[in-house]
Amino acid sequence: MSPTKRFFKLLNMDRKDIYQIFFYAIFAGLVSLSLPLGVQAIINFIQSGRVSVSWVVLVIFVVLGVALVGFLAFMQLRITENLQQKIFVRSSFEFAYKLPKIKFEDLYPNVYPPELANRFFDTITIQKGSSKILLDFSAALLQIGFGILLLSLYHPFFIVFGLLLVILLYFIFKYSYNPGVETSLKESKYKYEVADWLQEIARNKTSFRNQTNFEYALHKNDAIVANYLQFREKHFAVIKRQFGQLVFFKILITAGLLLLGGYLVITQQMNIGQFVASEIVILLVINSVEKIIIGLETFYDVLTSLEKIGQVTDMEFEAESESVIDSCYTAINLELENVSLQFPESRDTLLKKISLHILPSEKIILSGKNGSGKTTLIRILSGILAPTSGYFYVNDDTFRKINLNQYRSQIATITQGETPFEGTLLENITFNDPNISNDEIKWAIDSVQLTSFIKTLPNGLDTEILPEGKQLSSSNAQKILIARSILKKPKILFYEDPTDRMDDETARKIIDFICQPEHKWTVVVTSTNQYWKEKASRTIIMEKGRIINDIKINHA
Fold it and tell me: Which sign does the torsion angle of CA 329, 334, 340, 341 carry?
């Protein structure tokens, strides 16, 4: 979708509220005509040199008209506030719903998910900008329309004035729209690059304490900001050109109308009251045109923000089947048949015709050098990635037919780089699932050697964890992830380096627990800890995207 279509789609979602805003704007525009008409009548009475009841009544009506216009403006303000709240709520839930469901392939290789989340802040621009556009543009356009209609009653020349206004707005918008949007988008791109780099500095603050590194951080920031300023200046050039055209037009029209109005009064084709009223209307109309031209910068900002957010919401989601397979709730057999995977825009085939059968309760370790395809294979098995070709069967049914939510409810996954989220320890383990009992929580915590650590915390499980578990040791952070994974006793555990940050003794105890024969879950793990190989019932060795050896081990 083009940015303009996104904007009209946004308005269409709340078209009833938009209609109300336009209704109040039309009513306010009609009432505002009472000012010049009332002034015209009052001046005519003043010229007569007498005070009358009619003059007093006219003054009261004009004042009431001004008050009513103010009340109508307040009603519009209330509606636009409701719209701003709706936009914020919808946008927040749209991001919260869509970010976890974006296809992994769409994030590879150059997309950083936290940067996508940062685009939510463009919602604020959309809120404020849409409100300003709806209020100012609707009022300005209607004021121009009603003003020209009223002026045309005074003299036919004012019809020409109206046509000139319409032509002006058309050409200003036509020749500045595309450059305005393009420069605004590029300006926004570097704005986010600045924010991303500042985040990187904050995330690696220790590394940048060194003077040489500190200077590098400043130099890189300088380079990005220079690009931002370059396109900001180009965008301002578009706005400056629009404003220059407006100033020239105002000078031309004001001079022409004053001369013409004076001539019409002198030749008695218009009385002094009509002249004053027409000049008031002309000033209102010109100010309305100025409001529209200046407001175009806000319009560009809104279009840019919609485009930046749209680049996130337009990302493809993983397909979900609505079918329900009861057998998925008992034991789970997994089978890959000639599965290959190649990311879009990549020449490398990460997996090459993998065929594999995994039985329930097997304890499998994937082994191989870096880049051999272990992580890619485990992510296909866990449903994070979809194969480019070949077939993935779950209990003899093609994976594409399986409801992903149902499948994932039966498995647990720990991926590389995964950390606890901001929240309490209990929330990190249970996700506030009310169906989990205290006994189940205690069992999971005890099983991963986390109990002694929790006892040292004044607030226990209610202890707040910082983003990425910053105040936790890396060992305890991994224990929390493992406790979370085993809490509901899933059918399959998919682990990527789950114990590699723990000391040997703790890692051995947890590996012993995970691989106990009484636990019927299937385990598929990648790890550099050799103790997994001692406990595994099967070792799969990979090299360059292929399985080169599949060894079954009998510990009996």
Answer: positive
